[in-house]
Amino acid sequence: MTPFTSTRAKSVTAHGELALIALIRRWLGNASPRSPFGIGDDCAVIPPTKNQQLVTTDPVIHGQHFDDTVPPRAVGAKLLKRNLSDIAAMGGRPVAAVVSLALAPNTSVMWLRGFYLGLANCARRHGVKIVGGDITQGPRGFFGAFLTLHGESTGQRVVTRTGARVGDAILVTGRLGGSRAGHHYKFTPRLAEGAWLARQKDVVAMMDVSDGIAKDIRALTPQGAIASVWPPSIPVSAAAGTASGQSRRPAWMHALTDGEDYELLVVIRARTDPFEFTKRWSRHFATSLQPIGRFTRRLSPGHVDWRSLQGYEHLR
Amino acid sequence: MTPFTSTRAKSVTAHGELALIALIRRWLGNASPRSPFGIGDDCAVIPPTKNQQLVTTDPVIHGQHFDDTVPPRAVGAKLLKRNLSDIAAMGGRPVAAVVSLALAPNTSVMWLRGFYLGLANCARRHGVKIVGGDITQGPRGFFGAFLTLHGESTGQRVVTRTGARVGDAILVTGRLGGSRAGHHYKFTPRLAEGAWLARQKDVVAMMDVSDGIAKDIRALTPQGAIASVWPPSIPVSAAAGTASGQSRRPAWMHALTDGEDYELLVVIRARTDPFEFTKRWSRHFATSLQPIGRFTRRLSPGHVDWRSLQGYEHLR
Fold first, then answer.
1. How many other C-beta atoms lie within 10 A of the C-beta of residue B294?
2. How confident is residue B312, by pLDDT bands cut at 50, 70 and 90?
3. SS3 B59
4. What is the pLDDT of residues A72-107, one digit of tens each?
5. Which of B20, B35, B50 is closest, CB to CB, to A315?
6. R_g over Cα of chain B
7. Neighbours of A140 (CB within 10 A)
8. ipTM of predicted complex
9. Nearest to B57 among A48, A92, A134 (CB)
10. Which residue is closest to A46 within chain B, CA to CA?
11. Contact: B61, A132; criterion CB under 8 Å
């Protein structure tokens, strides 16, 4: 379904700004509290907290993060889930979000309703309040929604990207390479998993995989080390296998480079046995946690250096 | 200066995403702290606070909030100042911001540099840290920057829009109607003024004027009341006078309807003498604070009912 309509009566301009905001508040329902804790004042008020606070921002833009084949409800959910995945990657808990829309005058109200219902549904499922936002007119054929998500730490610490050392093991949740088969909007943010991982002292660094781990791993790699991965250990999704049949590149290469997996890349300290750790993990979660390599000074036999691969590059 | 270039070598695509992020971090300088308190991790971390937290979001979009006549540094400053004005309107103090960019592949790196230098300069002046963001490719000829600003209350309370009653007096800071003459990006957010006003018990409601007070006043007007204003009391800017000469509508009408004033609209309780109150104000601020009307049940003689006027309507 396309976000745009050629019938003026069905477009956002037929309603105007104030009526549209009233509709949005109705669509959001109890996912949006009353002002000043929600929409309707100059700022939204969030009560004080004793925990570390987390902030992240990610948009969905038509033609970039979704196309006309993605249902509007899934687009609304994806907008929030992209940000939830960032909160998960620090081991945090989501709290409140604001949404800034830039939309074409010919944006369909029906499509926008689906978008907000999907957003509200996802927000309720994860206990997130939609507390504010902004609507601005954009050029014809443009739809962009920019969400900023506010969260907090679930325990004593947040897990950053910078704790890895040479010798530490690299693990990944779930299966990789499914984004082309719809995983890019059907994924589940790993919030419970991230919070559990943040409580394990063995975990020294963490991030979510958004541009393909071949690219993202660079952010975790300690100075002077290489990320050395054993290809047969990569948890490849069935969709990556299909992509491989078409591209004639190995399935594990798709799994490492296709992007939008929204799985967690986890680093545990060298002295912890990765297989002991995954056994501990499997008492809590059905999702797999797979050891796939280590940070080393030199490449291990049969392993691949991730620097030789490319993830998704924006602005290219 | 236009945000776009026809020379590929001068465009953001010539750099690519990672190099561009490195440039942005350099342009922001000490306005952006190190991760995890700034750019570079999945989320930015903000230390816990005992105060009420405030969140607001406002963008700048080319063709909507600025055009090629506005210098890039002023565009960057305006982006932050629009949001600062919302924090001021609650009596708060700004803390940290994230910026999500949607930009055309032909966006000029030189223009973007000016934009970030202006943003960083404004952030430093107001003690705001730029802690994170996102860059996504948008359609050709599009530039939008979406900022979410995080703040906190300066004292015991935040001032909302909903405290006014019949009989209360309406006041406004500064002069109105100058947006067409460049005030829309040259304004100063009323942060010190807002914080002082929030400490005065007489102040029962407050908001900032972004779409013209003729429209914005509706949000402050108590049920069953009208905002009754005495036109000669409106603090009209010189620019509104010029606009009046061209449009042949009264200058005070421009002052009430032109939008983007970013002044504070303040409601004080009925039993406080507005002129006593402004005397108290003038011991602290050079900016004027002008009583302009009251919330009444019936229109006072010689007064104008603001419902008869229109402010700036988006999506029309």
1. 22
2. low
3. strand
4. 999 999 999 999 999 999 999 999 999 999 999 999
5. B20
6. 21
7. 11
8. 0.93
9. A134
10. B53
11. no
Q: How sure is the predictor about A202, in pLDDT bands with cuts at 50, 70 and 90?
A: very high
Contact present, A114 and A27 (Cβ < 8 Å) = no
Provide the token pair at B311.
């402010």
Class of domain A169-308: alpha beta
Contacts of B100 in chain A (CB under 8 A): 57-59, 100, 146, 148
Distance from CA of B132 to the nearest CA of A (A): 7
Query: Which residues in chain A touch residue B102, judged by CB atoms under 8 angstroms apart?
Result: 59, 61, 102, 144, 146
Q: What is d(CA B172, CA B176) in angstroms, rounded to the nearest whole number?
A: 9
Which residues in A159-263 belong to E strands, given as ranges? Answer: 169-173, 203-208, 226-229
Helix axes A72-89, A109-125, angle to 10 degrees: 30
A142 with B139: Cβ contact below 8 A:
yes
Q: What is the pLDDT of residues A271-287, one digit of tens each?
A: 999 999 999 999 999 99
| Distance from C-alpha of A99 to C-alpha of A90, rounded to nearest angstrom | 22
The residue of chain B nearest to residue A88, with distances taken between CA atoms, is B42
Residue B113 corresponds to which tokens in the numbers above? 């540099």
pLDDT in tens, B156-166: 899 999 999 99
Among A25, A57, A60, A207, the strongest candidate for a mutation testing the B interface, having the largest count of B CBs within 10 A, is A57
What residue segments make up the domains of chain A, in order of their start?
Answer: 8-153, 169-308
**CA-closest candidate to residue B236, choices B300, B179, B308, B187:** B179
DSSP secondary structure code for residue B258 in this structure: S
> Which class for B284: exposed (0-12), middle (13-18), buried (19 or more C-beta within 10 A)?
exposed
The answer to whether the Cβ–Cβ distance between B54 and A45 falls below 8 Å is: yes
pLDDT digits (tens, 9 = 90+) for A156-166: 899 999 999 99
Q: Give the chain B residue whose CA is nearest to the CA of A57.
A: B133
Distances (CA, A) of A246 to A234, A243, A256, A258: 20, 5, 16, 14
Token pair of A240 as six digits: 């990556």
Find the Cα–Cα–Cα–Cα dihedral B22, B27, B28, B29, rounded to 10°: 90
The dotted CATH code for A8-153 is 3.30.1330.10
Q: Which helix (H) or strand (E) holds A95?
A: strand A92-103
**Is B133 touching A (CB cutoff 8 A)?**
yes
User: Which of B295, B302, B218, B202 lies closest to B252, judged by CA?
Assistant: B302
Cα of first residue to Cα of last residue in chain B, in angstroms, is 28
Nearest to residue B81, comparing CAs of B170, B191, B177? B191
Residues 154-213 of B with CB under 8 A from A: 158, 160-162, 206-208
Comparing C-alpha atoms, which of A108, A170, A131 is closest to residue A39?
A131
Closest by alpha carbon to B43, among A168, A49, A52, A46? A52
Token pair belonging to A81: 């889930």
